[in-house]
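Quick bug: HPr-rel-A system PqqD family peptide chaperone output formatted oddly.
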Amino acid sequence: MRYRAPADAALLTAELDAFTAVFHRPSGITHLLVSPAPEILALLADTTLDLETLLVRLGERYDLGDASRDALAARLDELVAAGLVEAL
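Here's what came back:
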């Protein structure tokens, strides 16, 4: 399965201390996200990636500590359910 985020124009983001507020323009819903969700959205902003490639790129760019395939799959499922990421 591959994943992609909406076009940049569909999301408006603002940093709020430990949270990132993401306004999803198509739905009119604002989401409060914590790491690694904003980082996942940033990596999926310009491309479509599968879970394994996304895990590698997250590890290359961010200090994820105990990142695992299962943890990333769970975060992706949450982002898909929220409408912020599309599973293809």
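Actually, after a second look the formatting is fine. The longest strand covers residues 11-16. Closing.
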